[in-house]
Specification:
single chain; alpha/beta; globular; binds flavin mononucleotide
Length: 194
């Protein structure tokens, strides 16, 4: 199985990185791309410097023998840009409302928008972990539009009924939900009802 993970400039870079790690653990081939704004947020939140972005990201977050295929967001000639590559799952996490808008309107400007557009046209699973608050009517309408086109919308809103103790527990709740909606079994958070 193949997956694409797009990290955009919404808060929560760690969500996309954790999703990519979990997919790799399950033996999927993972393409990973970070938008221009995503790199700014990654620097802010995780201290990943823009000057050596790819090496630092791959070195700090991925095992040397389980690396994602890292693609720059302008790599529009790479496999995730084409339906013929047969990518099974597309995760945009975190998904900014700007990227949400491009996906909802089909106005792809970069590889992340295009990979999402391809997932929708090919009838593949597209997960949007949208993060913004508060939400304007424009954001809400774009979520509805994307959902009607087949996207699975997960607001980046962790729960507390599993008694999270750490930030990792909060992150893993959402990572687990993202895997759940595409049918990938996981034990990333305790289930309320079994
Ligand atoms: C530190 C920081 C945090 C941000 N957080 C969010 C956010 O949570 N949600 C959002 O939609 N945009 C957020 N933005 C704004 C987006 O980065 C901006 O709209 C950008 O154009 C998105 O581009 P992209 O979708 O191509 O990554 C944030 C920007 C910065 C610098």
């Amino acid at each position: 199985l193949k997956a694409f993970v797009g990290i955009t400039g919404a808060s929560g870079t760690i969500y996309g990185l954790r999703i990519a790690q979990e997919l790799l653990k399950r033996g999927l081939n993972v393409y990973l791309s970070v938008s221009k704004a995503g790199k700014i947020v990654a620097q802010e939140e995780l201290g990943i410097k823009n000057s050596n972005f790819k090496a630092e990201l791959l070195g700090r977050f991925f095992n040397p023998v389980q690396q994602p295929i890292y693609l720059e967001p302008d790599a529009l000639n790479s496999p995730p840009a084409s339906g013929s590559a047969g990518i099974d799952f597309c995760f945009i996490a975190p998904c900014s409302v700007s990227t949400l808008s491009h996906i909802a309107c089909g106005t792809g400007q970069n590889l992340i928008h295009r990979a999402a557009d391809v997932a929708l046209k090919e009838g593949k699973k597209l997960v949007l972990l949208v993060r913004e608050t508060p939400l304007s009517i424009i954001h809400l309408e774009n979520m509805l539009k994307a959902a009607k086109a087949g996207a699975l919308i997960l607001p980046a809103a962790p729960a507390f009924y599993h008694h999270p103790k750490t930030i990792d527990d909060l992150v893993d709740f959402l990572v687990g939900k993202c895997l759940d909606v595409v049918g990938l079994a996981n034990d990333l958070f305790p289930r309320y009802l079994k």
